[in-house]
Task: inverse folding
Protein backbone atom coordinates (compact mmCIF):
# COMPACT_ATOMS: atom_id res chain seq x y z
CA UNK A 1 0.00 0.00 0.00
CA UNK A 2 1.26 3.46 -0.75
CA UNK A 3 2.02 5.50 2.32
CA UNK A 4 -0.78 7.68 3.54
CA UNK A 5 -0.27 11.31 2.59
CA UNK A 6 1.20 13.93 4.83
CA UNK A 7 -0.22 17.44 4.91
CA UNK A 8 2.48 18.54 2.46
CA UNK A 9 1.52 15.73 0.10
CA UNK A 10 -2.09 16.90 0.26
CA UNK A 11 -1.06 20.49 -0.44
CA UNK A 12 0.94 19.39 -3.46
CA UNK A 13 -1.93 17.32 -4.71
CA UNK A 14 -4.30 20.20 -4.11
CA UNK A 15 -2.24 22.43 -6.35
CA UNK A 16 -1.97 19.78 -9.02
CA UNK A 17 -5.62 18.88 -9.22
CA UNK A 18 -7.53 21.81 -7.86
CA UNK A 19 -9.85 21.66 -10.86
CA UNK A 20 -11.50 18.54 -9.50
CA UNK A 21 -12.21 18.24 -5.79
CA UNK A 22 -11.82 14.69 -4.60
CA UNK A 23 -11.28 12.71 -1.43
CA UNK A 24 -10.51 9.10 -0.59
CA UNK A 25 -12.77 7.06 1.68
CA UNK A 26 -11.62 3.58 2.64
CA UNK A 27 -8.99 3.87 -0.10
CA UNK A 28 -11.50 4.67 -2.83
CA UNK A 29 -11.64 7.94 -4.70
CA UNK A 30 -14.77 10.08 -4.71
CA UNK A 31 -15.28 13.43 -6.40
CA UNK A 32 -17.88 16.12 -6.81
CA UNK A 33 -19.96 13.88 -9.02
CA UNK A 34 -20.27 11.50 -6.10
CA UNK A 35 -21.26 14.27 -3.69
CA UNK A 36 -17.93 15.59 -2.44
CA UNK A 37 -18.13 19.24 -1.40
CA UNK A 38 -15.70 21.72 0.10
CA UNK A 39 -17.58 21.48 3.40
CA UNK A 40 -18.94 18.13 4.48
CA UNK A 41 -20.40 16.65 7.63
CA UNK A 42 -19.39 13.23 8.86
CA UNK A 43 -22.70 11.86 7.64
CA UNK A 44 -21.96 13.10 4.12
CA UNK A 45 -18.66 11.24 4.09
CA UNK A 46 -20.31 8.08 5.45
CA UNK A 47 -22.94 8.28 2.74
CA UNK A 48 -20.26 7.96 0.06
CA UNK A 49 -19.67 4.37 1.18
CA UNK A 50 -23.31 3.64 1.95
CA UNK A 51 -23.01 3.47 5.72
CA UNK A 52 -26.09 4.87 7.47
CA UNK A 53 -25.13 7.78 9.73
CA UNK A 54 -26.46 6.13 12.87
CA UNK A 55 -24.11 3.20 12.24
CA UNK A 56 -21.07 5.12 11.03
CA UNK A 57 -17.78 6.08 12.61
CA UNK A 58 -15.82 8.55 10.48
CA UNK A 59 -12.13 9.18 11.03
CA UNK A 60 -9.32 11.02 9.31
CA UNK A 61 -7.01 8.50 7.64
CA UNK A 62 -4.07 10.84 7.78
CA UNK A 63 -2.46 12.96 10.44
CA UNK A 64 -3.97 12.44 13.88
CA UNK A 65 -6.72 10.06 12.67
CA UNK A 66 -9.21 11.85 14.85
CA UNK A 67 -12.90 10.97 14.77
CA UNK A 68 -15.26 13.31 12.95
CA UNK A 69 -18.74 13.58 14.39
CA UNK A 70 -21.67 12.64 12.21
CA UNK A 71 -23.02 16.18 12.48
CA UNK A 72 -19.63 17.84 12.55
CA UNK A 73 -18.92 19.86 9.44
CA UNK A 74 -15.35 20.12 8.26
CA UNK A 75 -13.48 21.87 5.47
CA UNK A 76 -12.40 19.17 3.07
CA UNK A 77 -8.87 19.29 1.67
CA UNK A 78 -8.39 18.02 -1.82
CA UNK A 79 -6.99 14.50 -1.74
CA UNK A 80 -7.76 13.99 1.95
CA UNK A 81 -8.17 10.41 3.17
CA UNK A 82 -10.91 9.20 5.50
CA UNK A 83 -11.92 5.90 7.09
CA UNK A 84 -15.56 5.01 7.60
CA UNK A 85 -16.35 2.01 9.75
CA UNK A 86 -19.53 0.52 11.17
CA UNK A 87 -20.52 0.52 14.83
CA UNK A 88 -22.25 -2.81 14.27
CA UNK A 89 -19.88 -5.58 13.24
CA UNK A 90 -20.96 -9.14 13.85
CA UNK A 91 -19.56 -12.45 12.73
CA UNK A 92 -22.68 -13.18 10.70
CA UNK A 93 -23.98 -16.50 9.51
CA UNK A 94 -22.45 -19.34 7.57
CA UNK A 95 -24.78 -20.35 4.77
CA UNK A 96 -22.66 -22.45 2.49
CA UNK A 97 -19.18 -23.67 1.79
CA UNK A 98 -17.26 -20.97 -0.02
CA UNK B 1 -15.87 -15.84 -12.05
CA UNK B 2 -14.82 -12.79 -14.00
CA UNK B 3 -11.10 -12.15 -13.81
CA UNK B 4 -11.53 -8.90 -15.73
CA UNK B 5 -14.19 -7.66 -13.35
CA UNK B 6 -12.05 -8.42 -10.34
CA UNK B 7 -9.06 -6.65 -11.87
CA UNK B 8 -11.21 -3.57 -12.48
CA UNK B 9 -12.34 -3.63 -8.87
CA UNK B 10 -8.78 -3.90 -7.64
CA UNK B 11 -7.73 -1.00 -9.84
CA UNK B 12 -10.23 1.19 -8.01
CA UNK B 13 -8.38 0.45 -4.79
CA UNK B 14 -4.92 0.82 -6.31
CA UNK B 15 -5.93 4.29 -7.51
CA UNK B 16 -6.58 5.12 -3.87
CA UNK B 17 -3.17 3.94 -2.75
CA UNK B 18 -4.25 0.51 -1.52
CA UNK B 19 -1.94 -2.38 -2.39
CA UNK B 20 -3.94 -5.44 -3.37
CA UNK B 21 -2.91 -8.66 -5.06
CA UNK B 22 -4.89 -11.27 -6.91
CA UNK B 23 -3.27 -14.58 -6.08
CA UNK B 24 -4.05 -17.68 -8.06
CA UNK B 25 -3.70 -21.02 -6.36
CA UNK B 26 -5.64 -24.00 -5.17
CA UNK B 27 -8.05 -21.37 -3.95
CA UNK B 28 -7.86 -17.98 -5.66
CA UNK B 29 -7.81 -15.08 -3.25
CA UNK B 30 -7.30 -11.36 -2.88
CA UNK B 31 -4.71 -10.05 -0.43
CA UNK B 32 -5.30 -6.57 0.96
CA UNK B 33 -2.00 -5.27 2.29
CA UNK B 34 -1.47 -3.21 5.43
CA UNK B 35 -5.07 -2.45 6.29
CA UNK B 36 -5.45 -0.18 9.31
CA UNK B 37 -6.65 -1.65 12.60
CA UNK B 38 -7.79 -0.13 15.87
CA UNK B 39 -5.38 -2.31 17.77
CA UNK B 40 -2.84 0.24 18.95
CA UNK B 41 -4.62 0.94 22.23
CA UNK B 42 -4.69 -2.80 22.92
CA UNK B 43 -1.03 -3.29 22.13
CA UNK B 44 -1.93 -4.98 18.85
CA UNK B 45 -0.64 -4.29 15.35
CA UNK B 46 -1.77 -1.02 13.77
CA UNK B 47 -1.87 -2.67 10.35
CA UNK B 48 -2.33 -6.14 8.98
CA UNK B 49 -2.63 -7.98 5.71
CA UNK B 50 -5.99 -9.65 5.08
CA UNK B 51 -6.89 -12.40 2.64
CA UNK B 52 -10.32 -12.90 1.08
CA UNK B 53 -11.12 -15.97 -1.04
CA UNK B 54 -12.58 -15.44 -4.50
CA UNK B 55 -15.84 -17.37 -4.37
CA UNK B 56 -16.59 -19.93 -7.01
CA UNK B 57 -19.30 -18.42 -9.20
CA UNK B 58 -18.36 -14.83 -8.47
CA UNK B 59 -19.99 -12.32 -8.90
CA UNK B 60 -23.29 -14.17 -8.59
CA UNK B 61 -21.87 -15.74 -5.44
CA UNK B 62 -21.25 -13.23 -2.70
CA UNK B 63 -17.84 -12.41 -1.30
CA UNK B 64 -17.56 -13.92 2.16
CA UNK B 65 -15.02 -14.60 4.92
CA UNK B 66 -11.73 -12.93 5.77
CA UNK B 67 -8.43 -14.35 6.88
CA UNK B 68 -5.40 -13.20 8.81
CA UNK B 69 -1.87 -14.56 8.85
CA UNK B 70 -1.61 -17.69 10.99
CA UNK B 71 -0.44 -16.63 14.44
CA UNK B 72 -1.73 -13.07 14.17
CA UNK B 73 -2.62 -11.69 17.61
CA UNK B 74 -5.65 -10.10 15.99
CA UNK B 75 -7.26 -13.47 15.24
CA UNK B 76 -8.69 -13.88 18.72
CA UNK B 77 -9.91 -10.26 18.76
CA UNK B 78 -11.86 -9.96 15.52
CA UNK B 79 -15.45 -11.07 15.08
CA UNK B 80 -15.57 -14.72 14.10
CA UNK B 81 -11.83 -15.05 14.58
CA UNK B 82 -12.03 -17.94 17.01
CA UNK B 83 -14.30 -19.90 14.67
CA UNK B 84 -11.80 -21.01 12.07
CA UNK B 85 -13.10 -21.64 8.59
CA UNK B 86 -9.90 -23.32 7.57
CA UNK B 87 -6.35 -22.60 6.53
CA UNK B 88 -5.16 -21.57 3.10
CA UNK B 89 -1.65 -21.20 1.77
CA UNK B 90 -0.79 -18.61 -0.84
CA UNK B 91 2.65 -17.68 -2.08
CA UNK B 92 4.23 -19.47 0.85
CA UNK B 93 2.14 -17.71 3.48
CA UNK B 94 -0.40 -19.46 5.64
CA UNK B 95 -3.67 -17.77 6.48
CA UNK B 96 -6.48 -18.65 8.84
CA UNK B 97 -9.98 -17.82 7.69
CA UNK B 98 -12.35 -16.34 10.24
CA UNK B 99 -16.09 -16.89 10.30
CA UNK B 100 -16.90 -13.35 9.18
CA UNK B 101 -19.87 -12.89 6.88
CA UNK B 102 -20.53 -9.18 6.40
CA UNK B 103 -23.16 -9.66 3.69
CA UNK B 104 -25.03 -12.29 5.69
CA UNK B 105 -25.76 -10.95 9.14
CA UNK B 106 -22.36 -9.44 9.80
CA UNK B 107 -23.59 -5.87 9.69
CA UNK B 108 -23.31 -5.03 6.02
CA UNK B 109 -26.06 -4.88 3.40
CA UNK B 110 -27.27 -7.96 1.54
CA UNK B 111 -25.04 -8.91 -1.37
CA UNK B 112 -25.84 -7.05 -4.59
CA UNK B 113 -23.56 -8.08 -7.43
CA UNK B 114 -24.43 -4.90 -9.34
CA UNK B 115 -23.03 -2.68 -6.58
CA UNK B 116 -20.66 -4.72 -4.47
CA UNK B 117 -17.30 -6.25 -5.18
CA UNK B 118 -13.77 -6.52 -3.87
CA UNK B 119 -13.53 -2.72 -4.03
CA UNK B 120 -16.41 -2.37 -1.56
CA UNK B 121 -15.49 -5.41 0.55
CA UNK B 122 -12.61 -3.36 1.92
CA UNK B 123 -15.24 -1.35 3.84
CA UNK B 124 -16.17 -4.48 5.75
CA UNK B 125 -12.57 -5.46 6.35
CA UNK B 126 -11.68 -2.07 7.80
CA UNK B 127 -14.81 -2.14 9.96
CA UNK B 128 -13.88 -5.66 11.12
CA UNK B 129 -10.41 -4.52 12.10
CA UNK B 130 -11.81 -1.57 14.03
CA UNK B 131 -14.28 -3.56 16.13
CA UNK B 132 -11.95 -5.69 18.19
CA UNK B 133 -13.04 -7.70 21.23
Result:
Amino acid sequence: MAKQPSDSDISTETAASSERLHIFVNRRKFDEGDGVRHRMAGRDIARLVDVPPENAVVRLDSGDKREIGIDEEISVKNGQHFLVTRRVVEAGNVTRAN
Amino acid sequence: MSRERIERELEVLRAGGQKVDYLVGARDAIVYHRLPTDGAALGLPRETDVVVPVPSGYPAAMIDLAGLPVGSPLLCRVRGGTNSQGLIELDGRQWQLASYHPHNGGGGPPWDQTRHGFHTYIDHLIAWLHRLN
Observations:
- The first helix of chain A runs from residue 7 to 16.
